[in-house]
Write a structure and sequence with these properties.
single chain; mainly alpha; two-stranded parallel ribbon; Arc Repressor Mutant, subunit A; globular; 2 domains
Length: about 270
């Protein structure tokens, strides 16, 4: 007999290719930056979202996952719903300086508007200022259009959207009906941490500059070649990075090494 996992979500999304509310759907293809064959649903499943798919075999790059979710989300509302739900509960794990830099460098104006609406929705639900720095680099679109492409294909849905779009979505010129969070679609925090032990460090630093520094060096060892490069990648001043490195070194999280005239940094194993 299979026993029910008490930490499992009570609500589970179906396959990503299905439809949401009989209206919104869209197939999500492979995400090449994940493990071969993995997709966005399996990546979200790995970090605690209740999608009816097998979880990815390793912990995804969290900020990269958010960027790719924003890019794909206009064709599948479930991604936006689960991202908003997950961030409302686990948003403190996101390295916000790193996400801010990636929003500037990796997303176009439309992508930044979608990200801004997503994070503003989280802020509205949580009353938290955690993502204010990221929201600040996002701008509304110059003219209003639907958040989800399905409304462009169905005039009746577009008419309904014009009547029911939220004030928040109108501020971003990305018209959307209220995004209903699905907290029952998330695994318990203990499950998320057990399956993704690297999140413990993120939780300790609550997504601050230290978190971005460690993640940048882990993802690309060359990022630690200089404080100036770390400052560029994290979107912070060199002074702020040096202060954060001092705290990380004191905790034994990073080690400084002299390389010629430069001070290189590596994450302590």
């Amino acid at each position: 007999m299979v026993r029910h996992d008490p930490q499992a979500p009570r609500f589970v999304f179906g396959q990503m290719g299905g439809q949401m509310g009989g209206q919104i759907g869209g197939q999500i293809g492979p995400a090449k930056w994940l493990n071969p064959g993995a997709d966005l649903a399996s990546a979200w499943c790995r970090i605690g979202a209740g999608f009816n798919v097998a979880p990815a075999s390793s912990t995804p790059d969290l900020e990269e996952l958010l960027v790719e979710t924003v890019r794909a989300g206009r064709d599948n509302a479930r991604l936006i719903v689960i991202a908003a739900t997950w961030l409302s509960r686990f948003g403190g794990l996101v390295a916000r300086h790193r996400l801010r830099r990636m929003a500037i460098e990796r997303l176009d104006a439309v992508g930044r508007a979608v990200l801004g609406l997503l994070l503003d929705t989280v802020r509205e639900h949580t009353r938290s200022a955690h993502f204010n720095e990221v929201i600040a680099v996002c701008r509304p679109l110059p003219s209003a259009e639907p958040l989800f492409h399905v409304h462009d294909r169905h005039p009746a849905l577009r008419d309904r959207l014009e009547r029911r779009a939220t004030a928040l979505s109108r501020r971003w010129n990305l018209l959307a009906e209220p995004i209903e969070l699905k907290p029952d679609a998330l695994y318990a925090p203990s499950w998320v941490m057990r399956l993704n032990p690297s999140f413990a460090l993120r939780a300790d630093y609550e997504g601050d500059l230290r978190c971005s520094i460690v993640e940048e060096i882990l993802r690309d060892p060359g990022a630690g070649d200089s404080e100036l490069e770390l400052a560029r990648r994290c979107g912070a001043t060199r002074t702020a990075v040096r202060h954060a490195l001092d705290r990380l070194a004191l905790a034994g999280r990073v080690e400084r090494e002299r390389v010629g005239r430069r001070s290189a940094v590596r994450v302590a194993v």
